[in-house]
Amino acid sequence: QLLGKWIYLLGSSKYPPHLEELRSVKYATFFFHPGSHPDELNVTEIMRVNETCVTRNTSTIQVFRHNNTLMHVDGQVTSMAHLIRSSKDLLILQHINNGFPGLSLSARSLHVSKERLDEFRAQLACHGFADDEIF
């Protein structure tokens, strides 16, 4: 279900390095491709950071099915996320970064129903995020 194109829509984080990134990313899509084994995905990211377009093909996702956790590996840097909700068209992740909470919403298209947005906002509220902390 995770393979293919995803569009990053909304995110929030209390982790200072991610806050800086969230403020500078204007648009982001990412593609999951099959990796070297069933629980590995190769990632292509295409982002507009401020006024610069960036394409990266250097990272992978390790999938831990037993606990719905994903590990993003980009060189020597790793980050973890727990899959809160996944369907064929929606991906809500709880990011785990040195004890700082974070959440992101990605979808297959820019068009997400009001119910799905409300679901994400409810998750944000449960994790202590205010509306002005959503990027």
From TrEMBL:
It holds the Pfam family ApoM. Gene3D superfamilies: 2.40.128.20. One of its GO terms (cellular component) is extracellular space. It is found in: Secreted. It comes from the Eukaryota. The keyword Hydrolase does not apply. Keywords: Glycoprotein, Secreted, Signal. This is Alpha-1-acid glycoprotein. It comes from Tinamus guttatus.
